[in-house]
Write a structure and sequence with these properties.
mainly alpha
């Protein structure tokens, strides 16, 4: 093992294999974009370290963001999944998106309702029936 005083004064090339370079952490204190959220969620099977390197983020930031993307009540979840679905259908005249209930409020798509039932731990799946 190398004493910490020697590590402090060693050249940066000696430390390349021990710690990630500071240039790989360029996004640590910046806001998450929708594209980064999508990239993170698409690669969720990779390790936290790989995701942090891919996104230029810290380990704790990646872990926290992944938890927010999996929480159906978070703004990050809504921005990624609900906003994404609305954007996909903006150019199309899809009857499901244009359905409005009697009070004038827009109905929630069935996919979002099912996702909420599946991931919201306050809801019991056995309390719901899916009928066609």
């Amino acid at each position: 093992t190398t004493p910490s005083s020697v590590r402090l004064f060693s050249s940066s090339s000696d430390q390349d294999d021990e710690a990630p370079s500071s240039s790989s952490m360029e996004n640590v204190y910046t806001s998450w974009t929708r594209e980064e959220d999508a990239l993170l969620f698409e690669n969720r099977d990779k390790s936290t370290a790989e995701l942090a390197a891919l996104l230029g983020r810290g380990l704790r930031g990646v872990r926290t963001r992944m938890l927010r993307l999996q929480d159906v009540n978070s703004a990050a979840y809504a921005r990624l999944f609900i906003a994404n679905n609305n954007e996909k259908h903006n150019g199309e005249d899809d009857e499901d998106d244009l359905l409005i209930n009697k009070k004038g409020a827009k109905l929630i798509p069935a996919l979002e309702v099912l996702r909420r039932i599946e991931w919201d731990y306050n809801l019991n799946k056995e309390d719901f029936f899916v009928l066609y």
